[in-house]
Amino acid sequence: MMVTAKVMLLGDMGVGKTSILYRLVHDRFDGQYKTTLGVEVLSYDVPADPAAGGEPARLVLWDTDGDFGTRIFDTVYVAGASAAIIVSDVTRPQTVKRMVELAHSFESRFPGRPYKALVNKIDLAEAAGSARWIEELPRSGVKFVSAKSGAGVAESFSELAETIRRRQI
Q1: Radius of gyration for the chain, computed over Cα atoms and rounded to the nearest angstrom
Q2: 137 pLDDT tier (thresholds 50, 70, 90)
Q3: Which of 34, 62, 108, 117 is the most exposed, fewest CB within 10 Å of its CB?
Q4: What does the alpha-carbon distance between residue 69 and residue 51 come to, in Å, rounded to a whole number?
């Protein structure tokens, strides 16, 4: 039997939420995405891990408009969320601050529900001079990914799916 879970993608505008989803679902990157208005819904099937003996999981991914900010928790979009992926942009430190705010709001609204904090565009970190402040981020709970190269993307969603399976959310 397949586990199905609603996963919210949260984060500021332009952090790469849609790029991450398209890398995950379609294995492609296009630097010319249009801004998401409202929400876009895609699904992704995570196969069962034979070592863990779990079931496959279908993640129903809700890509949200970055203009919502923490007001997203006042909308109908988040109803029934099992988990969240909260994204920031390594080249814009203020988006990391927003990622932390969104994580706290998600924890408050959905106690005990898992989330992953993703710092995207890690392939641009050195060029953007971000290396200094990256060192200040906590290593636990934060994953560095690149929608452009795909580094860390599928693994992040697989880890989240495994947590959802274990907690039976």
Answers
A1: 15
A2: low
A3: 34
A4: 38
What average pLDDT does this structure show over 22-48? 84
Q: How far out from the chain centre does Cα 143 lie?
A: 10
Laid out side by side, the sheet with 57-64 consists of 39-46, 57-64, 3-10, 83-89, 115-120, 142-144
- Alpha-carbon span 116 to 96, nearest angstrom: 13
Q: What is the pLDDT of residue 49?
A: 75
Q: Are 147 and 23 in contact (CB under 8 A)?
A: yes
Contacts 24+ apart (CB under 8 A), 66-74: 66/11, 66/12, 66/13, 66/14, 66/15, 66/17, 66/35, 66/36, 67/13, 69/12, 69/98, 69/102, 70/101, 70/102, 70/105, 72/8, 72/10, 72/102, 73/105, 73/106, 73/109
Predicted local confidence at residue 87, as pLDDT: 96
The 10 Å CB-count burial string (b at 16+, else e) for 109-141 is ebeebbbbbbbbbbeebeeeebeeebeebeeee
Q: How does pLDDT run across 82-125, given as a tens digit for each residue?
A: 999 999 999 898 998 889 889 989 999 999 999 999 999 998 87
Residue 26's nearest CA partner among 38, 43, 13 is 43
